[in-house]
Design a protein that fits this description.
Blueprint lengths: L2 E5 L4 H12 L3 E6 L7 H10 L4 E4 L5 H10 L3 E6 L6 H6 L1 H22 L3 E7 L23 H19 L4 E7 L1 E3 L18 H9 L6 E4 L11 E2 L1 E3 H16 L7 E6 L5 E2 H12 L5 E4 L14 H7 L7 H16 L4
Parallel strand pairs: 1-2, 1-4, 2-3, 4-5, 5-6, 6-11, 7-10, 8-13
Antiparallel strand pairs: 9-12
Helix pairs in contact: 1-2, 1-8, 3-5, 5-6, 7-11, 9-11
The structure holds nicotinamide-adenine-dinucleotide (NAD) and uridine-5'-diphosphate-4-deoxy-4-fluoro-alpha-D-galactose.
Uridine-5'-diphosphate-4-deoxy-4-fluoro-alpha-D-galactose (UFG) binds next to helix 7 and strand 8.
């Protein structure tokens, strides 16, 4: 049984990934400081899997604590690094919080990996590194541009730090997964997305509106150069996304990587507009959504979706869940989570 450390494993994508690894027979050690998550998630993970991951409530930036944890788990084979701050708007107001947590935390994790000899890392990157691509769909060879936000910049810089570190340490291998837009919840509705306060992202805003927590969804702009005028994204099911981490870790452990640091787009390969997402939600849940078109949101790109052929061919991974099933899973989670609407 391989041991794996998952930082940020109580968070949205992390918790779904912990489930995948536990169900595949890995021993999982979670490090999370609960800065953007709740301990109750651990119960959901345990109910789904009937297994107990080892959990440390610890900050990845804390040098002593992280060193201690790594020394207790020196038999770890790989690490999946989710822990980071992720609110784009907040990062513009508090850039140093983002550089400290996302960059400082990564440096501390890599330092301990090298010290203990944990030789494989999978990193949570983002399609934000491509900005607004000139050619769609976007491939892994598309230009990386100067990010719009400090958050986006931490993803670009993190990828560079990992490249420099693997180049200087021949035993260390890395895979960066560039996620497109993760949505949905585990089909059991025992874990899902738990945004704190007003959600920034589309799907939680839709489900919170439908359940009556918000009055209406504001659709940010219908004057984009897209078929229905609203912005287009590649919405990827969170369980499909979680599985990509398993494929990546197995590729590293099987020594199949062609390069010390590989990059994969993780999306569906299909773009959907905001209005299409609303329609898919209404169709699959039978709920009518109250929404209104308003002006564009500052910093939004017009359209982006992934070319996923490289992930399919090299990683052997492909998104499987339909958009309808995915938005339905988000709704089932919202109902169970809030417990207010049947
Ligand atoms: P999340 O906030 O739900 O999960 C992150 C987890 O990390 C949380 O549980 C939080 O408590 C923890 N954490 C944060 N800072 C920490 C620290 N210093 N020490 C220990 N734990 C810490 O976010 P998510 O949506 O699950 O995202 C996971 C990763 O994927 C992040 O790196 C994020 O930037 C990246 N990503 C997310 C998206 C998205 O749309 N959700 C898109 C692209 C990339
Ligand atoms: N949108 C609305 N109304 C809302 C929320 C969103 O119309 O209330 C629209 C946005 O304008 C955008 C689309 O829905 O066109 C998706 O917006 P999200 O906020 O859900 O997602 P983004 O594509 O803006 O950003 C997400 C993550 C970022 C990450 C980025 C690229 O939130 O962290 O994907 O990976 F950087």
């Amino acid at each position: 049984m391989h041991k794996i450390i998952i930082t940020g494993g109580i968070g949205y994508i992390g918790s779904h990934t912990v489930v995948e690894f536990l169900e595949s027979g890995y021993e999982v050690v979670i490090i999370d400081n609960l800065s953007n998550s709740e301990l109750s998630v651990l119960e959901g993970i345990e109910k789904i899997t009937n297994k107990k991951p080892i959990f440390y409530e610890a900050d990845i930036c804390d040098e002593n604590e992280i060193k201690n944890i790594f020394h207790q788990h020196s038999d770890t084979k790989a690490l999946v690094h989710f822990a980071a701050s992720k609110a784009v708007g907040e990062s513009v107001e508090k850039p140093l919080k983002y550089y400290k947590n996302n960059i400082g935390g990564l440096v501390n994790i890599l330092t301990n990996m090298l010290e203990i000899g944990v030789n494989n890392i999978v990193f949570s990157s983002s399609c934000t590194v491509y900005g607004q691509p000139k050619i769609l769909p976007v491939t892994e060879r598309s230009p990386i541009i100067k990010p719009e936000s400090p958050y986006g910049n931490t993803k670009k810089i993190s990828e560079e730090i990992i490249t420099d570190t693997v180049n200087a340490n021949e035993n260390l291998k890395a895979i960066s997964l560039r996620y497109f837009n993760p949505i949905g919840a585990h089909p059991s509705a025992l874990i899902g997305e738990l945004p704190i306060g007003l959600p920034n992202n589309l799907l939680p805003f839709i489900t919170q509106t439908a359940i009556g927590l918000r009055e209406k969804l504001l659709v940010f702009g219908n004057d984009y150069n897209t078929p229905d005028g609203t912005a287009i994204r590649d919405y990827i099911n969170v369980c499909d996304l979680a599985k990509a981490h398993l494929f990546a870790v197995e590729r590293l452990l099987d020594n199949k990587s062609n390069f010390n640091h590989e990059f994969f787009n993780i999306g569906t390969g299909k773009g959907n507009s905001v209005l299409e997402i609303i329609k898919a939600f209404e169709k699959s849940t039978g709920q009518k959504l109250n929404y209104e078109i308003t002006s564009r949101r500052f910093g939004d790109v017009e359209q982006v979706w992934a070319d996923t052929s490289f992930a399919e061919k090299i990683l052997g991974w492909k998104a499987e869940t339909s958009l309808e099933d995915t938005v339905k899973s988000a709704w089932d989670w919202e109902k169970k989570n809030r417990g207010r609407v049947e």
